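step=predict obj=Phenylacetate--CoA ligase n=438
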Amino acid sequence: MSRAYWNEEIETISREALEVYQLKQLKEQLTESYTKSPYYKQSFDKANVKPEDLQSLEDLIKFPILTKHDVRERQDVAPIIGDLCVKGEEAVVFISSSSGSTGVPTASPFSKRDFDEFQDVESRLFWQAGMRPTDRYIHALNFSLFVGGPDVIGAQNLGALCIWAGTLPADRLLFIIQQYQPTVIWTTPSYAWYLGETAKQKGINPATDLAINKIIVAGEPGGSIPATREAIEDLWDAEVFDFYGISDIFGACAAACEAHDGLHMAEDHILVEVVDEKTGLPVKEGERGEMLLTTLRKEVRPMIRFRTGDIVTYTDEKCSCGRTLKRIKMVGRIDDMFIAGGVNVFPSDIEHVTRKFESLTGEYRVNVIEEQHITKFTVEVEKRLNDETDTKELKEKVAYEIKMQLGVKPKEIIILEEGTLPRATHKAKRLQDLRQKA
Ligand SMILES: [Zn+2]
């Protein structure tokens, strides 16, 4: 009989015991940072805090926040790994490099122990998603510089048969999937959808002709939006598991379990804070806030209170799967948020709605516009080819549902023909900001 957990002791630990462990680790990580990293010495001194000021986990709020900008800047000061590091390059065995979509790429360094622990966390999260040694796993993520590339080793260490596919064109990937009949795949939600639709066009039914029964997704909130998840699940006749990763820490830091009610964070390695993005004060369980992450065991580069730019909600309640580790729910990237009618709007809020309509393909795009200094938005959706619903009626229904979801009405719903919006092969671009930049 197969065991339920990869690491039962950690995954079902009581919150009290976990916090005792986290506090011990955090003290060590802060002391290392302060005594060995020029950056942290300087930033703690500037904020007038010392590692000894941390007596409880709540005291972490006294310590300065670390931004992506800081990481980039300190990399320039001390190339190539930056002076946030507490060990020199001789301790480093691996670096991943961020995509650089918002500036110069930053290197994320790992010691041998960091890397091995990273992979053990990946094995745990794969196990949690139901992967077993009998599975065939196809890793369809980018291997070039990307921190998600090596995650395949976690699947291999778990005992699964691993196929290192990387990012292949859909035709080629489908050919490989037909040939080897893997049972588990990892890709983005948009690509899972695109790949399934492409298969259908080629006369392959992903639900019956392919063996995939689990789809791991990450990189977009879709995997945790029930309507999106169900649409992908129906297309493939497979269960979708949402994962969360960040290049500065691990390829995956959190993952869904069979309950699909939030992603369990690897809290023995990563301390989670969820704060109001303006005041920096902690928000309550269930409220939206920006996630800050602090590493608890990183040997080369500790990350203390790193701003992820991800808006989440969290709960510490024990999950029905038996795990006690904190669960987060992704709302969206702070960069994709805009304010309309006094409401914070994320594309994922709109996705919740557009995926509910049978008449629509599920593809959508949000356009942010400005009229007389007032921010408004329009939503483009696609009507299915042979759908007979009246377009005017459909527009009104979609607008109404969005108003119910957000509390603010879109200026217009634009109904397009099926196949008009660009299909994503990696991360879907759902937001167009058409406002005049000052
Ligand atoms: Zn669970």
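step=describe
The CA atoms of residues 251 and 374 lie 39 Å apart.
step=end
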